[in-house]
Amino acid sequence: MIKLNKLAILCKEIALQRGKITSNSSPRATLYHISAEWRELLNATKFKSEHLPEWSEQEEEAADIIITTLTYLESIRCKNIENLIRAKIEFNSKRND
């Protein structure tokens, strides 16, 4: 399994190749892409994805949010995405709100 930190590097490289961001883009540009992906998820259905027929539109769009978020975390130079997520899950497990 690929570690999230390595996957984030790949996600950012692909975003650069596709022109979604440039080497001069600020992390804020990626935040706008996350917002756009959320809107696409809101409109997605449970029907098969046109691009990935083995998955639903909802699954594909949710994956796009994860991919864009990994790109954002790489852009802000998050040192250890896996540990960040583990820490946040642990924190959330103890919350009462």
SSE arrangement:
Blueprint: H1 4-17, H2 27-43, H3 57-75, H4 81-93
Helix pairs in contact: 1-3, 2-3
List the uncertain runs. none
The value of Rg in angstroms is: 15 Å
Structural class: mainly alpha
Please report the distance between the alpha carbons of the first and last residues. Answer: 34 Å
- Proportion of residues in helical segments: 55-70%
What is the structure about, briefly put?
The chain has 97 residues and is an all-alpha fold. The protein has four helices and no strands.
Structure overview:
This protein has four helices and no strands. With 97 residues, it is mostly helical. The chain is 65% helix and 0% strand. The protein is globular. Helix 2 packs antiparallel against helix 3.
Distinctive features:
97 residues, mainly alpha, 0% strand
